[in-house]
Design brief:
0% strand, 58% helix, mainly alpha, 144 residues
């Protein structure tokens, strides 16, 4: 089984494989199974940051919807066409050092540079990564 870095969601293929293992264990109760997990902390850290940035973009979209008199929907997605404007809003709101022009105003940056600065400003602790890794186990325990 594998998870995408930074995610606690199984892919459809991984879920099917896990179902096969569960059936085998149910059919043969004497079987034992040892599970060993592996991960790349760097990949997990970067994926966690990307997920947090995506969360910030969705929150900005909800904020804009409310400002315009709409409802703040829990399920919000950001289309590729909306991404640049939302990224700019998130960047402008962010409390991080921003490059300045000669007269001291925050300089307009290309999308890639704004992303890079935002991602670098998102803290990720070892506990954050451990919580992401433990989420599927906790979710499974709650269902049983």
């Amino acid at each position: 089984m594998s998870f995408a870095p930074g995610s606690a969601q199984l892919t459809t293929e991984a879920r099917a494989g896990l179902d096969k293992v569960a059936r085998a264990l149910t059919d043969r109760p004497a079987l034992t199974l040892t599970v060993v997990g592996t991960s790349s902390l760097d990949a997990e850290r970067e994926a966690f940051k990307r997920q947090r940035l995506d969360d910030m973009l969705r929150a900005e979209k909800r904020r804009a919807s409310v400002r315009e008199g709409g409802a703040a929907s829990a399920q919000v997605s950001v289309s590729p066409a909306e991404y640049p404007a939302l990224l700019k809003e998130v960047y402008q709101r962010a409390d991080l050092p921003k490059p300045r022009n000669l007269i001291g105003l925050a300089r307009d940056l290309p999308q890639g540079e704004m992303e890079k600065l935002l991602l670098a400003s998102i803290p990720v602790t070892d506990e954050d990564i451990q919580n992401t890794a433990a989420r599927p186990i906790m979710d499974t325990a709650r269902r049983t």
